[in-house]
């Protein structure tokens, strides 16, 4: 045993020597070798990339490099997510099972408590169940005071309406609240930040339309952030639907845009002289804004809706539609609800073959809904339809081409919707006065109407 131990001790220096040699060998093999990497060049030109993006945006990319994309979604979201995933506003007002049937509450109504209570009682006693309220109005005034990191939000907030108190009252009555946010028509921001607006190239003055309205630039991310910040605050207060109105460029923009100075931002690559696509960058900007708004509002549990000219569902991708940036089908894929403004008085004489549309509200709505339904049924992620109907008289029309609107004319529009499978609507009257005696739910009342 003694000699064995001595032998083992003698082996130790030898083993250490061997391990050292191996270690040195390893270090030598770990020396870095430099290789000359091949130069990488783009396989496609910028024009080809832009063209491919255009096809994506227009839903025309059927194949790419021999591959056919699968149109059906790989994953589908459940119809109802657990409430724990959403911000808790403290206001619990469920979506009406029978569909949203609402009226617009004009700002003046909130200066008259008796009138407001009358309208809320009227809703309680009829099949109506929702209200649309200006959160940010046509001038850009935010109707309640907000505390925000955005200085413009603070600057344009006023203590006009106590929304916390109002929403508690709506919760008690189970009246569904929709916050109307006038988006790109905004005098306050245009005047405070002219660089966010459109300027007359000749005079340098802020451009305004024939009615004196001023707009802000939908191409700018700062403008997106501004409006989305306001929308999030509305959702946090308890509004269940954020309705973006004037989510477009000014009417006729394609006819005078070259006379204005404004930034196109990141959408310059989409600008083209092709008459079949001229103005497409505006459509992409509006689409992208609504998509971002939908994404950022998702954690707050509020639906997103958009007010759209009814004409866009008829005109498709016409130049005047691209001019304002509203493509009905593409918008309908990016929001929860589309609210087409289809007031009979707003259609030209002879439209749909109707000599004077204001005189035939049933026929006008019936003809329109056929066209809208044709679009929505061919969209993978189609939005819900909730049109704006006329509950006012347009006294500005020529004698003989209009009529005074009462319960009958409102009823005709609602029945036309119902016969086209649409059971949601919003009634517009800027004065806040609505016709009584209307059956707002003919689909369930059992009443039959023939027009």
TrEMBL record:
Domain of life assignment: Bacteria
Keywords, comma-separated and alphabetical: Signal
Family matches, as Pfam families: DUF4015
Signal sequence range: 1-21
Listed InterPro entries: DUF4015 (IPR025275), GH (IPR017853)
Domain DUF4015: 102-431
PROSITE patterns from the UniProt entry: PROKAR_LIPOPROTEIN (PS51257)
This protein's record includes keyword Signal: yes
The keyword Signal appears for this protein: yes
Name the record gives this protein: DUF4015 domain-containing protein
